[in-house]
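Private note to self, pasted from the team thread so I don't lose it. Backbone tokens:
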């Protein structure tokens, strides 16, 4: 049976780590949390003096990571993540990608042209509530929860010692500075700011207006389980005095 390029690359990295005592470290790419930005930096540094890095696509979750290997990931406030995810799919993934809408996404964006209108319709009393729920469950970046990557509280707790780094998009630059030493990255390395590397719109005119206060509360309620996840992550950071495990 022939091995795919991706599987062969993983096998080569594991052999290299085993032969050189480098640590196996996996980046879990949670949707709309700066993963494209981080991968654009780490892509040319997947083998360092200290570790071997695996830069995974969205579909790889904690359960797929071998025992004994370490993981790292970045989080983002769910409201900000919602706005970013809506805009990204509205642009069909541009500027970094081009992923056409599904039939359900086309229906959703024809009904809700901006994130505020969709959020307001999450009110059960809203006449378009059923359409809003369908949109939230079918727009790719909006339908996922952090728990899709981590299972549940018990499963996450069982693998806590595997976690090397929990970054936050809200403090991304500072957190990345603290990540460079344990990964063995060059000290001069910085996160990119260009629109393609960060997968952000390059034009302020393409960005939607802020959510109304009522819309913010409705989005928070929709993602309330994700806030439970963030609380766990914040407590982890407090125990370790920052984003990197001590």
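Design output:
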């Amino acid at each position: 049976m022939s091995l795919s390029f991706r599987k062969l690359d993983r096998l080569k990295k594991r052999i290299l780590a085993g032969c050189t005592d480098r640590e196996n470290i996996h980046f879990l790419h949670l949707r709309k949390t700066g993963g494209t930005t981080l991968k654009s930096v780490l892509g040319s540094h997947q083998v360092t003096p200290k570790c071997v890095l695996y830069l995974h696509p969205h579909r790889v979750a904690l359960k797929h990571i071998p025992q004994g290997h370490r993981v790292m990931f970045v989080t983002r406030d769910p409201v900000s993540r919602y706005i970013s995810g809506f805009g990204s799919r509205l642009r069909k993934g541009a500027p970094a990608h081009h992923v056409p809408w599904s039939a359900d996404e086309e229906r959703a964006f024809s009904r809700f042209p901006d994130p505020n209108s969709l959020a307001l319709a999450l009110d059960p009393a809203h006449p378009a509530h059923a359409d809003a729920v369908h949109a939230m469950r079918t727009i790719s970046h909006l339908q996922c929860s952090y728990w899709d990557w981590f299972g549940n509280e018990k499963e996450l707790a069982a693998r806590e010692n595997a976690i090397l780094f929990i970054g936050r998009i809200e403090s991304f630059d500072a957190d990345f500075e603290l990540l460079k030493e344990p990964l063995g990255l060059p000290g001069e390395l910085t996160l990119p700011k260009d629109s393609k590397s960060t997968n952000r719109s390059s034009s302020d005119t393409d960005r939607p207006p802020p959510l109304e206060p009522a819309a913010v509360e409705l989005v928070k309620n929709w993602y309330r389980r994700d806030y439970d996840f963030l609380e766990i992550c914040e407590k982890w950071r407090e125990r370790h005095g920052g984003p990197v495990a001590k």
